[in-house]
Amino acid sequence: MQSKMRSRWLVLLTCLLIISALSFEAFSSAKATKKKKQHADKAAVLWRDPGNIRKRDLYYGPGSKDLAPAPPFHFIKEVKDGSNPKFEVEDARGARWRVKLGPEAQAETVSSRLIWAVGYNAEESYYLDRARIDGLTKLSRGQKYVQGDLVRGARFEPRRKDIERGKQWDWNKNQFKGTRELNGLKTMMVFLNNWDTFKKNNRVLHVKDSGEDRYTVTDVGATLGAVGGFGAHRSKNNANDFSRDRFVSKVKDGKVKYDYNLKPQGFGLISLIYPPYYFRQRKATNAMNKVPAEHAAWIGSQLAQLSDDQLRDTFRAAGYDRATTETYVRAMRGRINELNRLRDAQVAVRARRTR
After folding, report:
1. Residue 240 in contact with residue 327, Cβ under 8 Å?
2. CA–CA distance, 2 with 40 (Å, rounded to integer)
3. CA-CA distance, 275 to 272, in Å (whole number)?
4. What is the DSSP letter of 120?
5. Is 153 left (phi over 0), alpha (psi -120 to 50) or beta?
6. DSSP alpha helices (H): ranges in the chain?
7. 3-state helix, strand, coil in the chain (%, to 5)
8. 233-263 in b/e burial notation, b at 16+ Cβ within 10 A?
9. Phi and psi for 291 in degrees, rounded to 5?
10. Confidence band (pLDDT; 50, 70, 90) for 8?
């Protein structure tokens, strides 16, 4: 009798444990689904209407005078990722900043402002020609920009507490694929001669207060020089190279082919011994090409609203001298005009169709 009772209790206990396990699994699954749905419901933003572009302040760009880094700066640590010398500091207000040295410092300050000017997400970026850093230790990279506790040519990028740096996003796999806005951003990358257009430089920045997910190109330092793959000539922050490079190559079947090639060339073809590198470069090249002409013309119409003085402000914010600034402004105006000719061609095509 006792044996039968124990068996019944054992069966009952087993049933209860199974029910509990199934209930917990269902609850966990529902919770995960809810969390996934909440994440999907967040506003994913790549571009927003910038309004009257002629009124945009390109000296401060996405930042402002009130948000700019405030000395004195206290050294926190060196950052060893990436290919450029970087370190973190805290300013007088307790704000944390990532400081980048080298040729990308100026180029990124300009590029981030131009991307922001036409409605895309961009991080704040401030350029200081000289900055004294309390407690600065010897850096493993970039010592040539350092003299004692003084650094020269420094780009300051904030690490705001209300912004969480999320996942990387891919040019070919995202929810904006095929849209005018994504193709406009691709055109901006080519416009700036950015030869480092890889997934590692794209991040979703989550704004905690609003729940907004901002799809952002977070590293635009390899710009304003010559575009080229391994074995070809390429540069950063070189006005003469930038002004000599071609922009629009041709339009075929309604798609724009840019003079943009990141594939290895010349002795760089030795990289074929490691195929993943070659195919990565080819993929990056293809991602920026074959943009619908109407999409390229659209972003050109946005850029065309910028005055030469606004363009000059971006270079003034990055500490360029007058002669270098004028070289860049002329080259950029020429590129904007190339995009405008695409727009005029589109208008002519529509006019013929309506006859």
Report:
1. yes
2. 56
3. 5
4. B
5. left
6. 2-41, 104-117, 180-191, 239-244, 275-287, 293-303, 308-317, 322-353
7. 45, 20, 35
8. ebbbbbbebbeebebbeebeeeebebebbbb
9. -80, 130
10. low
**Is the backbone peptide bond immediately before 292 cis, with ω within 30 degrees of 0?**
no
Q: Looking at per-residue confidence, does 156 or 4 come out higher? A: 156
Most confident of 7-11, 188-192, 269-273: 188-192
* Contacts of residue 112, Cβ cutoff 8 Å, sequence gap at least 6: 61, 62, 122, 123, 124, 125, 220
Q: For residue 101, which amino acid is it?
A: L
Residue with tokens 């540069």: 235
For 51-75, what is the mean pLDDT? 98
Residue 83 pLDDT: 86
Write out the two tokens for 25: 């699994």
Give the containing element (helix H, strand E) for 147: strand 146-147
Identity (one letter) of the amino acid at 231?
G
- Kindly report the average pLDDT of the chain as a whole number: 89
The pTM assigned to this predicted structure is 0.86
Place of tokens 């920009």: 145
